[in-house]
Amino acid sequence: MDRISGLSDELLLKILMLVPTKVAVSTSILSKRWEYLWMWLPRLKYDSRNCSEPECERLQSFLDRNLPLHRAPVIESFSLGLFTSRFKPESVNMWLLNAVYHKVRELDIYYEFHPANPNILPSNLFTCNSLVILKLEGGGILLDVPRMVSLPSLKSLKLQIARFFNDQTLQRLLSSCPILEDLVLNLDEEDTTQKLTVAVPSLQNLSLFIPYDHEIDGFVIKTPALKYFILKDNNYRAHYCLVEHMPNLIEAHFDVVLSDIKSLIGSITSVKRLSICSETIFDDFVFDQLEHLKLCLCKEHFSNQLSRLLKASSKLKTLHLFFMNSDHYLQQEIHDWNEPSTVPECMLSSLQSLSWSEYTGEPQEREVVVYILKHALHLKTATIKSNDLEVPKFEMLKELALSPRASAICQLMFD
User: Fold this and answer.
1) What is the per-residue pLDDT for 228?
2) Residue 115: what pLDDT?
């Protein structure tokens, strides 16, 4: 008897879990003992990427025939990657129902195709008590949440480029997830949701992406327990933004084109880490917990923003000036830099690190760096990174190296 044949079924299953599902299924031809062993797998992943039409038909037939016979009492995770329109919606729904029947805990569906009539998920999915993680991605999915919905175990929800049946769909879904902690919401450009509301008392992580030409009227966010917040809103249409205070927020990343984000900024004044790209001038806000700031250079009034943020952040430790995205690389000349009338408190007590990416050595930029070097009493490192050859790097380094420094221990590094 070979060594593998002497292993228990439990151990063989652990081995099968280490290989792709397709490979695990192929072991059914090895012997009678192996014929149905794969049917006890608690994790299943099927992917039609790069499949020909005959291969897709065989996959559909295989799933139609075998999923109802699956023997694992609990499916830990079930993943479907559907990259063509060849899969029948009724078959997809039946596969999902089988997963629900087997008390699925993690469900990951990718349906890339954008049909005229997107696939509406089975209503039983929205009353699955075992579901902990739900990921839905692709324009081939239409979320039509029934009135009877209950997802008591759901902690993580990811909706990528999916479509909603109406404006109430998302909130109906979210209101039935009492312990939801993580939410990723990436609106599809063809989605018709106009009024978006995210109201989840338990939510700790939120990522919201609103595409450029989505016809949205605005959004409301009520997440008092939130700790991590990513917002990318490059929508060019005028729309409202109403966000309630987030007293527990630790980290926020904003890339927004909205001109009026007072409600958004006012909600994050307790944040400790902030990365932002925005035209907004931060008047009348105090960030008394902010320790780490990353400010995008691409906006016209960035130096004015910098001045206001330095004044507002008395505990700031690190400052990074950078381009948030490669498509933002459109350096604005600094015309409005004026030294603050009084040295910001963070310069005198807390700022330890300065980093500037895509530094060009222009006089206005140099003035900003020189000002910080001159007044930051506790600065430990100043790192300047440049790809610009108009001003030789040696000359840039020399100019800054000769600048007065308030901190005797400050190391000036040039990359």
Assistant:
1) 98
2) 59
The parts of the chain modelled with pLDDT lower than 70 are 1-3, 5, 113-117, 325-336, 387-394
Length of the chain: 415
Predicted pLDDT at 333: 58
Q: Are 99 and 78 in contact (CB under 8 A)?
A: yes
Q: What is the per-residue DSSP string for 340-378?
A: -SS--HHHHHT--EEEESS----HHHHHHHHHHHHH-TT
pLDDT recorded at residue 1 = 42
pLDDT at 107: 97
Query: What average pLDDT does the chain have?
Result: 88
Distances (CA, A) of 74 to 98, 106, 293, 302: 11, 11, 45, 54
Exposure b/e, 359-371, CB count within 10 A at least 16 = b: bbbeeebbebbbb
Distance of alpha carbon 264 from alpha carbon 200, whole angstroms = 17
Q: Which residue has the tokens 């190391």?
A: 411
Instruction: Quote the CA–CA distance of 55 and 360 in Å, as a whole number.
Output: 54
> What residues contact 28, with CB distance under 8 A and at least 6 apart?
34, 35, 36, 37, 38
Write down the pLDDT at residue 117.
Answer: 66
pTM: 0.89
CB 186 within 8 A of CB 206: no
The burial class, CB within 10 Å (0-12 / 13-18 / 19+), for 102 is buried
Q: CA–CA separation, 23 vs 20, rounded Å?
A: 5
Query: CB pairs under 8 A, 24+ apart, for 264-268?
Result: 264/231, 267/221, 267/243, 268/229
> Given this model, what pLDDT does residue 391 score?
56
Are the CB atoms for 37 and 28 separated by under 8 Å?
A: yes
Give how far the C-alpha of residue 413 lies from the chain's centroid of Cα atoms, to the nearest Å: 32
Give the containing element (helix H, strand E) for 229: strand 228-233
Q: Residue 399: what residue type?
A: E
Token pair belonging to 358 = 């895509």
pLDDT at 114: 59
